[in-house]
What we know:
By secondary structure, chain A is an alpha/beta fold. In chain A, the strands form five sheets. In chain A, strands 7-15-11-12-14-9-8 form a seven-stranded antiparallel sheet, with no helix packed on it. In chain A, strands 2-3-1-4-5-6 form a six-stranded mixed sheet, sandwiched between helices. In chain A, strands 16-20-18-17-21-22 form a six-stranded antiparallel β-barrel. The N and C termini of chain A lie far apart (about 75 Å). In chain B, helix 2 (about 35-45) crosses helix 6. The model of chain B has no long low-confidence stretch (mean pLDDT about 85). Classes of the chains: A alpha/beta, B alpha/beta.
Amino acid sequence: xxxxxxxxxxxxxxxxxxxxxxxxxxxxxxxxxxxxxxxxxxxxxxxxxxxxxxxxxxxxxxxxxxxxxxxxxxxxxxxxxxxxxxxxxxxxxxxxxxxxxxxxxxxxxxxxxxxxxxxxxxxxxxxxxxxxxxxxxxxxxxxxxxxxxxxxxxxxxxxxxxxxxxxxxxxxxxxxxxxxxxxxxxxxxxxxxxxxxxxxxxxxxxxxxxxxxxxxxxxxxxxxxxxxxxxxxxxxxxxxxxxxxxxxxxxxxxxxxxxxxxxxxxxxxxxxxxxxxxxxxxxxxxxxxxxxxxxxxxxxxxxxxxxxxxxxxxxxxxxxxxxxxxxxxxxxxxxxxxxxxxxxxxxxxxxxxxxxxxxxxxxxxxxxxxxxxxxxxxxxxxxxxxxxxxxxxxxxxxxxxxxxxxxxxxxxxxxxxxxxxxxxxxxxxxxxxxxxxxxxxxxxxxxxxxxxxxxxxxxxxxxxxxxxxxxxxxxxxxxxxxxxxxxxxxxxxxxxxxxxxxxxxxxxxxxxxxxxxxxxxxxxxxxxxxxxxxxxxxxxxxxxxxxxxxxxxxxxxxxxxxxxxxxxxxxxxxxxxxxxxxxxxxxxxxxxxxxxxxxxxxxxxxxxxxxxxx
Amino acid sequence: xxxxxxxxxxxxxxxxxxxxxxxxxxxxxxxxxxxxxxxxxxxxxxxxxxxxxxxxxxxxxxxxxxxxxxxxxxxxxxxxxxxxxxxxxxxxxxxxxxxxxxxxxxxxxxxxxxxxxxxxxxxxxxxxxxxxxxxxxxxxxxxxxxxxxxxxxxxxxxxxxxxxxxxxxxxxxxxxxxxxxxxxxxxxxxxxxxxxxxxxxxxxxxxxxxxxxxxxxxxxxxxxxxxxxxxxxxxxxxxxxxxxxxxxxxxxxxxxxxxxxxxxxxxxxxxxxxxxxxxxxxxxxxxxxxxxxxxxxx
Lengths: 614, 298
């Protein structure tokens, strides 16, 4: 069997450089394309092939219909082959620019990258982009496969020139190894056997190099990190924590702490279905027993007491944006690090990195495939290491709350402040005390709806009714917020998000003061309304959907804004040229057409009493 | 001994634990074949010393080999695990069968539609399945946590990027995830692991004398009296085994003398045909699997 273990390879290069052909050739030469697959390949080569009269090995990896029709690779394909020395997993990443996110995806798991360069074209913009992404993602070993070497006149000088150019430009990236090899996927030169066509090349063939390289970074030497996946409690006698060791080694008897709580214990058992172990290391899926009953749950990180990770709720990271919808600073996303999900937002974009030149550029947001250096804040502290030190505990993804798309990959650089220093000062008078002095419970009533739907009218009448009942109230609306606190904000999507974020924070402070706060804002996006809900305690946020049809609102048009928007004099107007996302499950749904406002106020008052807010 | 198999095993265990931790109502698809046997073995390891926290689901087209059904029932009895068996009765009532219906129609109704019925009837939000990326070119592009929309359809152009070991398990109501713990295993890995762990599999994988007829160059075993013989066909006794187990009238056997796992591994070293070559319904073009998966297939 394979004695050097598994090598995970990423192949990348520009469009038409022949990556897929090279991978197809490797599979064929190592006996991993069988007769019926070969017959299918011959048939497909006649239909889709790009090499006249020859078998197009690219078709062995380009599996999707659209890829075959357009002779491009869209998505990462995984292929497997093995020799007597080693087994290999190949992630074939697309070269097409718009699919760069897939290359980062392939790179996140790879030990070594094969960067393919067409000998006729030399180093192009995309080559540098791919080298930079490999570096960013922490790949330390690179093979420079200079392909189509059979198609150039003076192969030796072409090879030398390309290799020198690349080695020079990649020097600052500090790869641990960088091996240029002249190859041809179509004819097989230097793939598994030395080519007579390149007598001047004395290095290893591609396969020889892949079999020999020692690409395992010394991850056993890293501190022990164990993200808890599940608490296992089949009966009264057993309690254990199942998970996969992210780095390092653990022994029975080791002193550990749960990183976030700091609670200490010792490893009492390392349980597997094949019997208990005395020691386990990176990659092992085990169940750990602890000698003390400490509070540990899914998402926690067990670490050595002596080598702890950073803990913070604010940190700097590199973000690779992966979604069609661009980044919105301030919007609440969900962040996954290890097995932990926490709400998170981007508090600042420091700069964007040009992936060709590695230069820093000013940026207000990030678009698909852009890379930025950002500050992030999480709703709760997280435990992490720098990505440069530990790929498993320094990486995270961001997920959009509405689409559930994975919108970004994140690589943590460093914590911005210690979470332990920001513990909220313990106050003698707290929210509960302030609320009960007013004989009410602090509440934020959030009115959302189109302009002209009646939000402010209802909010103000409700305030009057509450005030008359002896409650302590305040109304936040466009009139008192837009001119002061938020006078610097416009109506772009980015500014709308920031607008609501600030209002949310102010509402939170007012709620902390024990008030009943009424907020009357169009607030067109579900994600922002949810963000405010999450700032507050359970039950404190009441979402009121003030519902009137667009036609009715245009008819009312109390401020004449619809007329201006329709005439093009006001831009980004909700309902006209900017979307409104109605609540899916509002706490109160008010239909305002043909109803007296006082009847609607009655509805809200009844809800507040029913929920014990007043 | 085999670091490569150890890492595949650990990866599969991690994926299964992840499904159990992140989903409300998961299920494991169980086809009774060798890959399912390996999955069940891995699930026992993943949740040791506890029990497997989800049921198994077998889509029974009613045209499975008798040995397959017997093995399934014996496994359920021995492990005590909950085994849900679902057949598309409505399809069977419409007279869909593997002899007279076109293979693609038959598979769509009796497998794909049947699977959707069972997933919806039970409200499963995640299904663990035994697909391997080495089986087919479209599978090679599939994620480990693969998103399905409310119609159970796979959209290969709109897959979530899957980075590090950070699986995106978030879905809305009605949507689901198919999770593939054996994504990175090859056919050889499966057999080597079965040998190493001594995992029981259906006897049809081992060579024995069986009655066969030859159709379109494929050997079809006459498994029961429902087999519709064509004019001139006369079953002959030959020594055969299966590399893959589908519905018996649509699955070709190969002539073989391999009576145990070691002999199967030896024969595989010199095999020149791929595993799914024996699946008659899958020989209608290189992209047939992609088409089926877009419709919601396994």
